[in-house]
Amino acid sequence: MTERPESPVVGVILAGGLARRMGGGHKGLLEVGGQSLLAHVMDRIAPQVDGLMLNLNTDPADFQAFGLPIVRDVVEGHAGPLAGMLTGMAWARAHYPDARWILSVAADTPFVPHTLVQRLMAVARQERTPLALARSGGRLHPVFALCSLELLEDLQKAVVTEGVRKVMDWTDRHPVAYADFPVSPFDPFFNINTEADLRAAEELARSHNLEGG
């Protein structure tokens, strides 16, 4: 069973991208192992958090069946994942007043770890930082972030006033802890950007019995 941290955490699934390399459309609806990418992410993240929402900037109709609150960016113009993180923070503060953290994850990563929150929280507490980021095989995954809600106003200023768009341009301003995840037998942060990625994910799901999350 996945352990939840004592401090309430709200999960934010970032699905606001335009998926240009996949010809546009909704990557989260593509299937791997018999279910959609978004369903895989939900199955893995929902047990780790106290609330969950979907950040989406396109037509929400195809996503209503997932039963998640769907929230558009608070910044217009497809401003990227940092704007999605800001949107998640604002939504969490409004709907979960006891929450102290948000967890942001991408909607196109079907193998995201079941222990993501637990391990990010552990390093954040150990190093007493307001931010914790995931890392695997020496590669940083800044979208997979545990962020203290104390940083909401700072992030709002960065995104809205200063026009900051890259996640690390903002996270580098603050103390950050890093949680390392193994890449064997596969990288749990493998994400789908191309048709070749989708085929590779399907093979991973088959070979490692990962159907259904």
Under CATH, the topology can be stated as: Spore Coat Polysaccharide Biosynthesis Protein SpsA, Chain A
Q: What percentage of the residues does DSSP assign to strands (E)?
A: 15-25%
Structural class: alpha/beta
Q: Helices and strands, in N-to-C order?
A: EEEHEEHEHEEHHEH
Q: Can you tell me the overall shape?
A: globular
Instruction: Please give the largest β-sheet.
Output: 7 strands, mixed
Q: What portion of residues is helical?
A: 25-40%
Distance between the termini: 14 Å
Q: What would you report as the Rg, rounded to the nearest angstrom? A: 16 Å
Number of helices: 6
Name of the top-level CATH class: Alpha Beta
Short overview:
The chain is of the alpha/beta class and 213 residues long. It is built from 6 helices and 9 strands.
